[in-house]
Amino acid sequence: MINKAYLLALAACLFLALLAPSLVQAQGGLTILDSRAQAEFPYRLNFSLSAESDVNITDIRLHYRVDRIGFAQVTSEVYIEFVPTNTVGIDWSLEMVKIGGLPPGSNIDYWWTVKDAKGDRVETAPVVVKLDDTRYPWQSLIEGKVTICWYQGDQSFAQELMLTAQQALAWLAEDTGAELEKPVKLYIYANSQDLQGAMIYPQEWTGGVAFTRHGIMAIGIAPGNLDWGKRAIAHELTHLVIHQMTLNPYIDLPTWLDEGLAMHIEGPLEPVFADYLNRAIAENRLISVQSLSSPFSAYAEESVLSYAQSYSLVDFLITNYGRGKMFELLNTFRQGSSYDGALEKVYGFDMDGLDALWRDYVTPLAQPSMTEMPAALVGVGY
Fold first, then answer.
1. Which CATH number among 3.40.50.12280, 3.40.50.1100, 3.40.50.720, 1.10.390.10 corresponds to the domain 139-380?
2. SS3 per residue for the chain
3. Span 186-226, pLDDT tens digits
């Protein structure tokens, strides 16, 4: 009879063997003893490797690839400096400050190549590392192509945000014809401070950001600030959809169109933005469409005006020329058309022409009232 305790011990050993890193060995004596990666979100990703051979190990290289939408797979290669010996243990860190940071939930594939003095070579199998924000106990809710992750608030809080997301997708499809092509994730932080703690270079007014190449967005929404949160979700989700639809290797969307569509799907322009716009009209200090095609100013007041004008420009185009033309404009940009070229093809005027027509359209607006600066703004990310 087989001893029961022996069977339990054997099963435990097999389980531990499954958890331990597997060894990789070339035909000679070159062997990978251990390979690991550990994230310190959002600051760095730490890699470690140990290997041995019956001769000196002479070359170690780390290869990694960030999982994001693109037109070619870009692999980065890191040459590791070390003193050649027959047993090595090395560590190397990818500092996120050097690449601008990565969003929560993003993935990185990595593998190693190691050579020794005899010419033996080992390449490890690719391993996927997920950059999770482990500071918070995340929950998740999935519907269709949308996943919402949150850690503060009950299930009804997440369900209400999901309803907002689905409604925004429906409105966007109706107004522009644009729809999600790939799944997206929404990370809901409890406030803007928590959100900014997940970013490398946040602006002090950042309330939400869309990482368009990753299909990920992050927003700071307190359960008690749900009205603002719903608008923020509609805004950032629009960025993800529009960028999926118009992605091309030649040119990005003009910022006024990208932000204007996001503001449009939020709903009517909020009073604070309307007041800034009205004041700029009355004081004849509107920003040109040419200038609004570039990234917006980091100065809060000018940024608020830029968002307000962008909303008004998109509203002008949809109201006067119809939703079909907007869909045609987005498809024209997808083909890599220039800013002026796309407008001329679809509407018959360039950016200067749009600027002149829009200024005539908004001139009769009422005088502004004084409203406080919004606590946080939303915007497109990386």
1. 1.10.390.10
2. CCCHHHHHHHHHHHHHHHHCCCCEECCCCCEEEEEEEEEECCCEEEEEEEEEEEEEEEEEEEEEEECCCCCCCCCEEEECCCCCEEEEEEEEEEEHHHCCCCCCCEEEEEEEEEEECCCCEEECCCEEEEECCCCCCCEEEEECCEEEEECCCCHHHHHHHHHHHHHHHHHHHHHHCCCCCCCEEEEEECCHHHHHCCCCCCCCCEEEEEECCCCEEEEECCHHHHHHHHHHHHHHHHHHHHHHHHCCCCCCCCHHHHHHHHHHHHCCCCHHHHHHHHHHHHCCCCCCHHHHCCCCCCCHHHHHHHHHHHHHHHHHHHHHHCHHHHHHHHHHHHCCCCHHHHHHHHCCCCHHHHHHHHHHHHCCCCCCCCCCCCCCEEEECC
3. 999 999 999 999 998 877 767 888 899 999 999 999 888 89
